[in-house]
Amino acid sequence: MAKRVGIEVSLAIGEVVKLANADVVAAYPITPQTHIVEHLAELVANGELDAQYIPVESEHSAMSACLGSSAVGARTFTATAGQGLELMHEVLYVASAMRLPMVMAVANRALSAPLSVWGDQSDAMAVRDTGWIQLFVENGQETVDNVLCAFRISEDPRVLLPVMVHLDGFYISHVIEPVVFPEQSQVDQFLPPFKYPVPLHPDKPVTMGAFAMPVIYSEAKKAQEVHLEAAKGVILECWKEFGKLFGRNYSPVERYHSDDARVLLLTVGGFSETAMTAVDKMRGEGKGVGLVRLRLWRPFPFAELRQAVKNAETLVVLDRAISFGGPGGPICSEVKAALYGEDKRPRVVGFVGGLGGRDITPAGFEEIINKGIEISQKGSDQEFEIYGVRE
Questions:
Q1: Which residues, in sequence order, are CB contacts of 158 under 8 Å at separation 6+?
Q2: The dihedral sign for the CA sequence 355, 172, 34, 37
């Protein structure tokens, strides 16, 4: 029988990695991710998880170790945050291009400078083109569920791609929440043993990551793109089966009071729950406002997004990262690109907020929505606004 436990979300991630029977954990500590791998180190040291824990000298080394462990067919997990994710950056491309399954929890953190240990999504956006599947969660239960799903998705023979699960640093990672953990037998039913089809082995040598001349490089990248796009079908299939088995359902784009809303707010991650409070209040005042939440970032859910916003007049997009010198926020720019050419589409207004861990209250979300409506009605050419900046 599943058990409900009050637990810090970082520790809950360690517990679900144990339930997934991970074989290798390679990691380096960095705030606000450290509690995840500290707990996993304890589980391994205490004999509760039969795995190899590899303490390394940097995040670059952690990801490099994960390449090797995945390549020999070991179920592999790591975690990082902010600057650590950036130190991994060059190796992330290798993991996806070589189709090495692994799961990484990212406790999202603002990037320097100035130095900040607090959360936003600038680290997640900086690695959006590395070829990884990227999922966002909003609370502890979603984190546990989607780490489990990430192993299933990553290791599916039709996918064989690495997966990042993004959770807000501190706002989610360090919060104690009631979390329902499945029984080991349920996990074993949902997550089959990992069998990598072409593992490295001295008895059957294979070449991995070979040098590519220009005559083949473009074809290799095209194949990688086609394969990542095709993974979406497996992701949907996984979430559907998870819902049947555990009673909690996930979608690439999730809606809240959006069907009859003329104005929609789009959010990603943990701030979505605060935004729901603002939407409830505004609807109680008779305002036609709804919420759309993006869960699947890569591969991008074009069809689901278009369907979710097709009846709206205004779409207010909140980014928690800046695309410097560009059109504001990376999510907003991709939303605009996804809707370009559609006969029926809302006017998109972008905001950047919650940077460096700055909070956005329900009243703040109301202000963002109202300001977005005002900009939309004026037909302003303003590309985006940074919310909460003191003049």
A1: 230, 231, 234
A2: negative
- Per-residue pLDDT of the chain (391 residues), as tens digits, is 688 999 999 999 999 999 999 999 999 999 999 999 999 999 999 999 999 999 999 999 999 999 999 999 999 999 999 999 999 999 999 999 999 999 999 999 999 999 999 999 999 999 999 999 999 999 999 999 999 999 999 999 999 999 999 999 999 999 999 999 999 999 999 999 999 999 999 999 988 888 999 999 999 999 999 999 999 999 999 999 999 999 999 999 999 999 999 999 999 999 999 999 999 999 999 999 999 999 999 999 999 999 999 999 999 999 999 999 988 899 999 999 999 999 889 999 999 999 999 999 999 999 999 999 999 998 866 667 899 887 6
Quickly count: other Cβ atoms within 10 Å of residue 6's Cβ: 10
Tell me phi and psi for residue 183, to 5 degrees: -70, 155
Q: Which residues contact 208 (CB under 8 A, 6 or more apart)?
A: 71, 98, 200
* pTM, 2 dp: 0.97
Are the folds of 3-246 and 254-386 the same? yes
Residue 59 host element (H or E): helix 59-71
Domain definitions of the chain by residue range: 3-246, 254-386
254-386 belongs to which CATH class? alpha beta
**What CATH number belongs to 3-246?**
3.40.50.970
Which residues on neighbouring strands pair with residue 103, listed in sequence order?
77, 163
- Angle 43-79-138 (CA atoms, 0-180°, nearest 5)? 100
In 221-278, DSSP assigns E strands to 253-256, 263-267
